[in-house]
Amino acid sequence: MDEICQNEEESTERVYRQPVSPWALENLPGDPMMWILIVSEILVFGGALWAFAGNELLNVEIYREARTHLNVPLATFNTIILLTSGLFAAIAVRFGRVKEVAKARLSLLGAGALGVVFMALKIYEYKEKLALGLNVETNTFYTLYYLVTGFHLAHVIFGLIILGIVALWPTEDNLESGTAFWHMVDLIWVIIFPIFYLMGQGV
């Protein structure tokens, strides 16, 4: 009987000692549903960027010529703006964890303000292209350029709304969830920027 009890205790101990997968949603900061949304959005953008890269292989000259009309310095500056916004969002989470609500809100305000600057500069860039007669029907490059960057801009707008909601209710869970989405917006742009603006330069 003692041997049976001992075996049961050892079995129970093994169950409790079983390591938790580092990929479990429960281990991620914020709401697990937000991470499901983030992963799904990354997959959508990933598919679009793969389509862009594949299409470029079939239209190398068209893509090379199309890139000469892109405003690389402006896009570079806008990249810095968005990454700095992400830094403010990360700082907001730090303040939220130590219950510095006012500072967390101020950091979110900084992140949101820079997000608005990014959005304004992106719209200005669109106006530049349209003034040159470059629209979604110009060629496949600009069709995908407007679709992918426009879809990203829609996420920037949605992200700004999320940051605003989080600023109203800056609990630690809300801060982690909202800023996770904003960092996803950063990450996607960091991938879009070199693929659209820098690939094929000088080739």
From TrEMBL:
Show the InterPro entries listed in the entry: Cyt_c/ubiquinol_Oxase_su3, Cyt_c_oxidase-like_su3, Cyt_c_oxidase_su3-like_sf, Cyt_c_oxidase_su3_a-hlx
Q: What is its main location?
A: membrane
Give the superkingdom in one word.
Answer: Bacteria
Alphabetical UniProt keywords: Membrane, Transmembrane, Transmembrane helix
Which residue spans traverse the membrane? 33-53, 74-93, 105-124, 144-169, 181-200
Heme-copper oxidase subunit III family profile domain: from which residue to which, for each copy? 34-201
Establish whether keyword Oxidoreductase is in the entry.
Answer: no
**UniProt cross-references to PROSITE patterns, sorted A to Z:** COX3
Q: Which PANTHER family match?
A: CYTOCHROME C OXIDASE SUBUNIT III (PTHR11403), NITRIC OXIDE REDUCTASE SUBUNIT E (PTHR11403:SF6)
Q: Which family does it belong to?
A: Belongs to the cytochrome c oxidase subunit 3 family.
* Protein name as annotated: Cytochrome c oxidase subunit 3 family protein
